């Protein structure tokens, strides 16, 4: 099985062989156009038995198609002394003298080019569930990676290698507190451990269009380089802090800020600075801030559906708004938590049993998505009745983001008081968002109470990967975070100190910001 | 040709003509990778190569060894989904 091909192809490589070979690929192996497909459908059958299965091969020297499995092509090869054939399924070249598939460099090159051409014509954008998600999103079909000359050169000049094993701590790095900056540090830890974001930055996908040095996306890119450099000393994020102060003035200053506010501000600035990376299907730059396709939107943006139902004519007015996070009210705040309004079912969801007194994340989500009677003092103008009527409003998820961030509203800033709600809310490692989807609500309304468990639909399943916690009071407090490494290893990040944590530590913690990642990624 | 094989040939022709065959191939490829089938087969191939010796193994050896195992290990859910797709396609394009 020599990679250099065999000498028996030399008899074939005469005259216009390259063009002939291309025609065979275009017509019978990878048919890109409707015409070639029609021809392939009609003519690609065995000349001896008429079957189209059985690993059909085409003779390279004459027009003959024969089964490989039934040895029909072998007979032809022997009788006519035509020693080369091509596999119509995969395009491999078979040599009957060598009695194996051979890999001739020139022929391989032609095969690759013809295959690419056919894919382009068919417009197949390939779905492949791996970290190659980003590459394929730009419209190229997945191929295995082969280094270019330049990459081989770089690898030779930089001989140091890092091996990633199950216990290695690459990607973990402490962050120095620059004066109450733990609110920023914990968010940085969460972001640097968001797998899709990490892949985007480590594969150099950001093309900066900003003239000045104040691009936050570039700084994030630098940050990822620092985190994955293998250095074990804590990193000092002074440049990041400076950029944040520049672009989000309301967060500037040395007093303690809210980590959730920082998250939203950071996502907003990153989204705005990603202009250079947003390319829509036509290869043109997307100018519309509402239909952005930047990495931040791809990962974090979901769609929240709000349905307002008129109580008189039952007409529904629907709006869908984008969101980066879901802020959930907690029991113990001034707004009443229980009881659930009609529409909430008491079944167990996500494997959490409802222990009396212990609130779960699912409880909070159910409350968030329950129909709410807007009182008589808040009548909405109904398009159907053409007058102001009482109505109910209900929120559901229309489109789920790849990373869902839940914000437990622990800080109460009402007119009466400013306090922190420390009620324990239990949250799961794995979360199924199906009951909170707009589509689920629709099937419930249509009377389908028992939703068939669609095994193939894993779209709504999420895994926890980061938790941000706040210790202390509203006046003086400290933020720390738990982040997930290598599927089931957790680490506690307390500014510059990183320690190993158990899953129990994570799940027993109070929880302020919860980051969940979709388990299965699909293309649109 | 028997009636069944004639029907098969006709269906195959229709699928190829409309480009559906290629799309189904891609779907199948994705599903089989997703469920780990591809990795299983890769591992099995490596075993066969070790057994027969790197210098002497032919593609034919591998085909003979992994075809029965490969066919048996395709998950039922994948078979079901593809059948469903083919049925849907035929229903849409019935002459």
TrEMBL record, chain A:
Residues 4-121 form the UBP-type domain. One of its GO terms (cellular component) is nucleus. It is an enzyme of class 3 (hydrolase). GO terms for biological process: protein deubiquitination; proteolysis. Residues 173-519 form the USP domain. Keywords: Hydrolase, Metal-binding, Nucleus, Protease, Thiol protease, Transcription, Transcription regulation, Ubl conjugation pathway, Zinc, Zinc-finger. GO terms for molecular function: cysteine-type deubiquitinase activity; zinc ion binding. Signal peptide: none annotated. InterPro entries: Papain-like_cys_pep_sf (IPR038765), Peptidase_C19_UCH (IPR001394), Ub_carboxyl-term_hydrolase (IPR050185), USP (IPR028889), USP_CS (IPR018200), Znf_RING/FYVE/PHD (IPR013083), Znf_UBP (IPR001607). It is found in: Nucleus. Its EC number is 3.4.19.12. It catalyses: Thiol-dependent hydrolysis of ester, thioester, amide, peptide and isopeptide bonds formed by the C-terminal Gly of ubiquitin (a 76-residue protein attached to proteins as an intracellular targeting signal). Belongs to the peptidase C19 family. UBP8 subfamily. PANTHER family: UBIQUITIN CARBOXYL-TERMINAL HYDROLASE (PTHR21646), UBIQUITIN CARBOXYL-TERMINAL HYDROLASE 22 (PTHR21646:SF33). This is Ubiquitin carboxyl-terminal hydrolase. It comes from Dicentrarchus labrax (European seabass).
From TrEMBL, chain B:
GO terms for molecular function: transcription coactivator activity. Its main location: nucleus. Component of the nuclear pore complex (NPC)-associated TREX-2 complex (transcription and export complex 2). Component of the SAGA transcription coactivator-HAT complex. Within the SAGA complex, participates in a subcomplex of SAGA called the DUB module (deubiquitination module). Component of the nuclear pore complex (NPC)-associated TREX-2 complex (transcription and export complex 2). Component of the SAGA transcription coactivator-HAT complex. Within the SAGA complex, participates to a subcomplex of SAGA called the DUB module (deubiquitination module). One of its GO terms (cellular component) is SAGA complex. This is Transcription and mRNA export factor ENY2. It holds the Pfam family EnY2. Involved in mRNA export coupled transcription activation by association with both the TREX-2 and the SAGA complexes. The transcription regulatory histone acetylation (HAT) complex SAGA is a multiprotein complex that activates transcription by remodeling chromatin and mediating histone acetylation and deubiquitination. Within the SAGA complex, participates to a subcomplex that specifically deubiquitinates histones. The SAGA complex is recruited to specific gene promoters by activators, where it is required for transcription. The gene is ENY2.
């Amino acid at each position: 099985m020599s990679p250099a091909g065999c000498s028996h192809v030399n008899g074939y490589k005469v005259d216009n062989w390259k063009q002939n070979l291309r025609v065979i690929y275009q017509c019978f192996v990878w048919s890109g156009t409707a015409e070639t497909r029609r021809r392939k459908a009609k003519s690609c059958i065995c000349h001896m038995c008429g079957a189209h299965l059985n690993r059909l091969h085409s003779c390279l020297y004459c027009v003959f198609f024969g089964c490989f499995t039934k040895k029909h092509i072998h007979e032809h090869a022997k009788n006519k002394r035509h020693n080369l054939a091509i596999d119509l399924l995969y395009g491999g070249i078979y040599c009957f003298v060598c009695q194996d598939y051979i890999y001739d460099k020139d022929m391989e090159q032609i095969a690759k080019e013809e295959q690419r051409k056919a894919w382009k014509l068919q417009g197949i954008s390939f779905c492949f569930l791996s970290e190659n998600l980003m590459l394929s999103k730009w419209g190229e079909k997945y191929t295995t990676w082969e280094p270019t000359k330049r990459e081989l050169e770089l690898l030779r000049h930089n001989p140091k290698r890092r091996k990633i094993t199950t216990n290695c701590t690459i990607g973990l790095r402490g962050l120095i507190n620059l004066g109450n900056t733990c609110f920023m540090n914990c968010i940085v830890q969460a972001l640097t451990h968001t797998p899709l974001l990490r892949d985007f930055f480590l594969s150099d996908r950001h093309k900066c269009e900003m003239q000045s040095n104040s691009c936050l996306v570039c700084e994030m890119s630098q940050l990822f380089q620092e985190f994955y450099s293998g250095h074990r000393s804590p990193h000092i994020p002074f440049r990041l802090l400076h950029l944040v102060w520049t672009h989000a003035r309301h967060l500037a200053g040395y007093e303690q800020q809210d980590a959730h506010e920082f998250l939203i501000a950071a996502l907003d600035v990153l989204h705005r600075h990603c202009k250079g990376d947003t390319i829509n299907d036509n290869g043109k730059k997307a100018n519309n801030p509402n239909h952005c396709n930047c990495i931040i939107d791809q990962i974090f943006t979901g769609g929240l559906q709000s349905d307002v139902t008129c109580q008189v004519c039952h007409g529904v007015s629907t709006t869908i708004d984008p969101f980066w996070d879901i802020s959930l009210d907690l029991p113990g705040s001034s707004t009443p938590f229980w009881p659930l309004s009609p529409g909430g079912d008491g079944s167990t969801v996500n494997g959490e049993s409802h222990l009396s007194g212990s609130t779960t994340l699912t409880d909070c989500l159910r409350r968030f998505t329950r129909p709410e009677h807007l009182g008589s003092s808040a009548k909405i103008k109904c398009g159907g009745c053409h007058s102001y009527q009482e109505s109910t409003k209900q929120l559901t998820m229309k489109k789920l983001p790849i990373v869902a961030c839940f914000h437990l509203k622990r800080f109460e800033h009402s007119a009466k008081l400013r306090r922190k709600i420390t009620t324990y809310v239990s949250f799961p490692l794995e979360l199924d968002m199906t009951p909170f989807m707009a589509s689920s609500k629709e099937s419930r309304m249509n009377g389908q109470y028992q939703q068939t468990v669609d095994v193939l639909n894993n779209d709504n399943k999420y895994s926890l990967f980061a938790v941000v916690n706040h210790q202390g009071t509203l006046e003086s407090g400290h933020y720390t975070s738990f982040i997930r490494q290598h599927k089931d290893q957790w680490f506690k990040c307390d500014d510059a100190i990183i320690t190993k944590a158990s899953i129990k530590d994570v799940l027993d913690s109070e929880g302020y910001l919860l980051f969940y990642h979709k388990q299965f990624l699909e293309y649109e | 040709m028997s009636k069944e094989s004639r029907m098969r040939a006709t269906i195959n022709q229709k699928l190829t003509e409309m480009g559906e065959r290629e799309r189904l191939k891609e779907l199948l490829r994705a599903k089989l990778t997703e469920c780990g089938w591809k990795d299983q087969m890769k591992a099995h191939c490596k075993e066969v190569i070790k057994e027969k010796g790197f210098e002497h193994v032919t593609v034919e050896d591998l085909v003979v060894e992994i075809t029965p195992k490969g066919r048996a290990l395709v998950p039922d859910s994948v078979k079901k989904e593809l059948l469903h797709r083919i049925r849907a396609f035929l229903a849409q394009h019935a002459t």
